Amino acid sequence: MEYLKLSVENHVAFITIDHAPANALSSAIIGELSEAFDQIGQNEEVRVVLLHGEGRFFSAGADIKEFTEVKNGEAFISLTKKGQAVFEKIESFPKPVIAAIHGAALGGGLELAMSCHIRLVTERAKLGLPELQLGLIPGFAGTQRLPRYVGTAKAAEMLFTSEPITGTQAVQWGLANQAFTDEDLLVKAKELAHKIAKKSPLALKAAIELLNYTKHDSYYEGVEREAALFGKAFDTADAQEGIRAFIEKREAVFKGK
Asked: What is the pLDDT of residues 2-22, one digit of tens each?
C-alpha cells in the first residue's frame, strides 16, 4: 500500500496513515483502508486494530484538490457512497478499532475517527467538521454519527460554525473517550489495545454486533440522504466558490446559488 503502513504485534494490528503533509483522505487512501481491514479481518491473530496518523496530524480532512477533478454532483455522490461504505465497514468490523488522534481530525478525518469504536485524543487536538465553510456538507456519514455522540444541539453548533473543538472538549462532549498529552497518546492507546486484546475474540465480536443495533433504520436513511444532498451541494455555485477559496487560501463569498 502506498499511503498506509500495516503491522501486527501481540494480537494488535497497527494502521498508520502516511500521506504528508496533512494525511488528507483521498479516494486512494479510502480504498487502501478498505483493503487493510479486509486483510486484518482474515488474520485470526489480530484481535484489536489501532489506527493513527504519521507526522503532525491524524487526518486534517478530505483531499480538497481532488474535488476539483470531480465532474458533477453524480460523480460526487459515487465518491461519498464509497467512503460511507468503507466507514460502515469499520464501525461494524468484528474486531475493536481504536483511533489515536493527534494534531487534527477534521472533515473526513473526523468522520473516519467517528467510525472507530473508541477515540483517544491529545488534549490540544482539533476535531471538527468544517465542510459548510466550503459550501458543502459532510459526506461520509458525519451528519449522522456526530449527533449520536454529542447530541443534536452541539452537532448543529459544530456544523454551522465550522469551528473545531479541542481534544479536552471532545471528551467533555462525549465525542472522545480519553485525552492525553502528546507524549502519552500512543503509549496509552497501545496499553488499551493490548488490554482489550486479552478478551475473548468471540465475545468482542458479539459485543460489537450488539452495539451496532443502536443504529436504527432512520440512521441508514439519513446516510443515504446525506449522499444525495452532498452531490446536490457540489453542483451549486457556492460550493465551487468555497472550493476555489480554500485552494486560494481566502475567505469564500457565498451568494446562495
From this structure: 999 999 999 999 999 999 999
Answer whether 117's CB lies under 8 Å from 91's CB: yes
Q: Which CATH number fits domain 4-182: 3.40.630.30, 3.40.50.620, 2.50.20.10, 3.90.226.10?
A: 3.90.226.10
Question: Could you give the 3-state DSSP secondary structure of residue 70?
Answer: coil
Pairing of strands 97-101, 165-166: unpaired
What residue type is 93 in one-letter code? F
Arithmetic mean of pLDDT, 114-136: 97
Specify the range with the lowest mean pLDDT, choosing from 103-107, 208-212, 224-228, 247-251: 247-251
Per domain, the residue ranges of the chain are: 4-182
Give residue for cell 489480530.
Answer: 46
Whether the upstream peptide bond of residue 21 has omega within 30° of 0, thus cis, is: yes
Could you tell me if 185 and 102 are in contact, meaning their C-beta atoms sit under 8 angstroms apart? yes
Using CA of residue 178, residue 94, residue 35, residue 164, what is the dihedral sign? negative
Nearest CA to 50 out of 20, 17, 28 is that of: 17
Give catalytic residues, as residue numbers. Answer: 111, 131
How many whole angstroms separate alpha carbon 101 and alpha carbon 94? Answer: 22
**Cα 26–chain centre separation:** 12
Mean pLDDT of the chain: 95
Pairing mode, strands 4-9 and 104-106: unpaired
Give Cβ neighbours of residue 129 (< 8 Å, ≥ 6 apart): 106, 107, 110, 111, 138, 142, 146, 158, 159, 162
pTM of the entire predicted model? 0.96
Among 163, 193, 161, 164, smallest CA distance to 177 is for: 193
